[in-house]
Design brief:
12 strands, globular, binds manganese (II) ion
Length: 427
């Protein structure tokens, strides 16, 4: 018996216990929405269609530069990770796809596809990794990868990205996300222009290998692991790169990859306006790239981002919604469930914005009313709607309660080897 088999009974049992209270809460919300001229069923359909991909690497405990403290039942490999991703989806019904990271997730597309099919999960964008060395590689990425001074190192990084595309094509992915750690720690360490020239030349070689129905996402990050300069440091450089590469290249916005006060929702709007918004890595931060759970620190910002997402999608944008977090003090499955729910919550709240009232307030320069129009949507407790969407899809009214009741973690802890906490983690 698989630990996944524990979930249906836990979902059914906890749903039965919560059924009466849920029905009353849902009726009250539906009545409130109706008074505002909103149809709960139409909203439910839109919310159900909003899904986020789980990062395979997020199912394990992350860490900081200082230490990693793994919990019981850590996934020992990609198949354990996919089991955990399936558990998350069965509970919250918002995460049908997984985003894989290579070479962490192996090099056997047939086995990945078979496992995904068996679990009923699909695969979103695949991620390449040229920010750390693998035991068998010929050239080190210590001083860069796609922008490295040495052509042999650049070629090795290009070949790895092309292998990621091959694996992705075999498992049904349609996009490659490229994030590199290339950068410098000292002024003068590298020539800014030469570095970007080399990066672009490498990126073009990868772009040329994209299947016709694929996209390539360039992901920017302000700093870390390089602390003086990073080659793709902001959305402007990301936009320039995507523009230089061509129509199949778009920008991926990781919410945590900005300075603390940056207006991320405005960046989203700018990229969308020029057709270069490809997708997201959802997470939250207070200081830097903290990789905290989505909505944990600033749920209002997540809502404002979703408000722009709705505008972009209304104009036909095809956005990849993915999570990218590091879970240091929680059960990763619980954090990923919570984050998927928070992304959906923000999306549902954005759907409630009275767009006519907002436009009228903007046209009449009524700043306060414009702000209050957004706040009115953000203040609405949409949890009963989210719970009903989960229930109708076979999920749990309260996924965290059902997960804990299932004993899934305890069951996998008996089967999986104890994980070492030695060394820092990948964050
Ligand atoms: Mn990311």
């Amino acid at each position: 018996m698989s630990a996944l088999d524990l979930l249906p009974e836990a979902i059914a049992g906890t749903n039965a216990e919560a059924a009466d209270a849920h029905a009353r809460d849902l009726d009250a919300l539906a009545a409130k929405l109706e008074r505002k001229g909103l149809d709960a069923d139409a909203l439910k359909a839109k919310v159900a269609a909003f899904t986020v991909a789980i990062p395979s690497w997020g199912t394990g405990t992350g860490g900081t530069r200082f230490a990693r403290f793994p919990g019981p039942g850590e996934p020992a490999g990609i198949f354990d990770k996919l089991d955990d991703c399936a558990a998350i989806h069965r509970l919250c019904r918002a995460t049908p796809d997984v985003s894989l990271h290579f070479p962490w997730d192996g090099d056997d597309p047939a086995a990945l596809k078979q496992k995904g099919d068996a679990l009923g999960i699909g695969f979103d964008a695949v991620n390449s990794n040229t920010f750390q060395d693998q035991p068998d590689q010929a050239h080190s990425y210590k001083h860069g990868s796609l922008s490295h001074q040495s052509k042999a190192t650049r070629d090795q990084a290009i070949a790895h990205n092309i292998r990621c595309i091959e694996i992705g094509a075999a498992i049904g992915s349609k996009a490659l996300t490229v994030w590199v750690g290339d950068g410098t720690n000292f002024p003068g360490q590298q020539d800014f222009t030469g570095q970007l020239d080399r990066y672009l030349e490498s990126a073009k070689a990868i772009y040329a290998a994209l299947p016709s129905d694929w996209r390539m996402f360039t992901e920017h990050k302000i700093y870390e692991p390089a602390f003086y300069s990073t080659i793709v440091q902001d959305w402007g450089t990301s936009y320039l790169i995507a523009t230089e590469l061509g129509d199949k290249a778009q920008c991926l916005v990781d919410l945590g990859h900005h300075a603390p006060t940056v207006n991320v929702e405005m960046i989203v709007a700018r990229l969308a306006a020029f057709g270069k918004l490809g997708g997201f890595h959802f997470n939250d931060s207070k200081y830097g790239d903290d990789d905290l759970d989505s909505g944990a620190i600033d749920p209002y910002r997540l809502f404002l981002v979703m408000n722009e997402v709705l505008r972009a999608e209304a104009k036909g944008a095809n956005l990849a919604h993915m999570i990218d977090q590091s879970h240091n003090v929680t059960d990763p499955i619980e954090s990923l469930i919570a984050s998927a729910n928070e992304a959906r919550r923000a999306y549902a709240q954005a759907l409630l914005v009275d767009q006519d009232a907002l436009r009228h307030a903007q046209e009449s320069n009524d700043a306060l009313l414009a702000s209050e129009t957004l706040k009115a949507a953000f203040r609405t407790d949409v949890e009963p709607l989210l719970a009903e969407v989960r229930r109708e899809a076979g999920g749990a009214l309260d996924p965290l309660v059902a997960y804990r009741a299932s004993g899934y973690r305890q069951a996998v802890a008996k089967e999986r080897p104890v994980s070492s906490g030695a060394g820092g983690g990948i964050v």
